[in-house]
Specification:
4-stranded antiparallel sheet, 6-stranded mixed sheet, alpha/beta, elongated
């Protein structure tokens, strides 16, 4: 559905160089700290900022060759943009009805009602969570084949985040060929939604892995400095010195569980992996 090859964007103190792919029927996540390049990747793909090289394909076509009909198949929600705050949901409904041939007005109204969005209240009086829900509901309202979402749960509390993620799960269940490219710095959101994840740091992909592998194959080792010196390090990806000893990231946790029963081996998660990879010393 989406292919990005060697995409480049140069700023004075930052360079983006990204290659990634979103196959049909999958949810691909981009995770990284603020400023890592997540939003730049999304906006470059949408043509919202000038790029300095690379190729982007969407729906099997170069992004600059997409027809109006092709663009009808895209749903977009950006954290830092949306409808005028002077509009209300009735205004948004009218706009979407004119923009998209496949806009499902009945379902959109039902979804807004289910999510507690008032139809006559101006968007400037909406809470952060209400605005986020409206952006996502608008993106899924016209039966798009591909969703492109930039930080859709940023600034939301746990309840609102879960409600937004549930909207996305419902969208996916309606058609197994639908795909999502989603960026977030809230890694737990991606763990429960994505098939695979790209970890971006300083404008580059430093890790790409299936989510199941991250949660099942990767592990965190915690051991003394003495034990670390004796350790077979062929499967160690990152090692970081701590006050108590050394913490390591491995993609072969079973190897260390079987061969080093005396050391602590914990299941990994994205948050721990990010912290280790940003502070790596080996």
């Amino acid at each position: 559905m989406i292919k990005i090859h060697d995409l480049k964007k140069n700023y004075r103190d930052f360079q983006l160089n990204i290659t990634l792919e979103v196959p049909a029927g999958t949810v691909t996540g981009i995770v990284g700290k603020n400023g890592a390049g997540k939003s730049t990747t999304i906006k470059s793909r949408l043509g919202l900022i000038h790029t300095d090289g690379g190729e982007v394909e969407v729906l099997g076509k170069r992004s600059d060759k997409l027809s109006g009909a092709d663009k009808q198949q895209l749903g977009v929600a950006l954290a830092d943009s949306g409808f005028s705050f002077e509009f209300n949901v009735e205004d948004v409904t009218a706009i979407l009805k004119k923009m998209y041939k496949e806009f499902d007005e009945e379902n959109f109204r039902k979804q807004c009602k289910d999510q507690g969005l008032p139809f006559d209240k101006k968007l400037k009086d909406f809470s952060t969570g209400m605005k986020a829900k409206l952006r996502v509901l608008a993106a899924v309202s016209h039966k798009a084949k591909v969703l492109i979402l930039d930080e859709p749960t940023s600034g939301l509390d746990v309840i609102a985040r879960n409600e937004v993620l549930e909207i996305l799960r419902t969208y996916l269940e309606e058609d197994p060929e639908r795909s999502i490219l989603i960026s977030s710095h809230i890694s737990s959101d991606l763990e429960g939604l994505c098939d695979d994840i790209y970890f971006i740091h300083d404008g580059k992909v430093v890790l790409h892995e299936d989510t199941d592998a991250i949660l099942g194959k990767y592990g965190i080792l915690k051991l003394s400095k003495e034990d670390y010196e004796k350790l077979d390090k062929q499967y160690i990806l990152v090692a970081k010195e701590e006050k108590f000893g050394v913490t390591c990231l491995t993609a072969e946790k079973m190897y260390y569980m079987e061969n080093y029963p005396g050391i602590v081996v914990e299941n990994s998660n994205l948050d721990e992996m990010i912290l280790l990879m940003l502070g790596k010393k080996n």
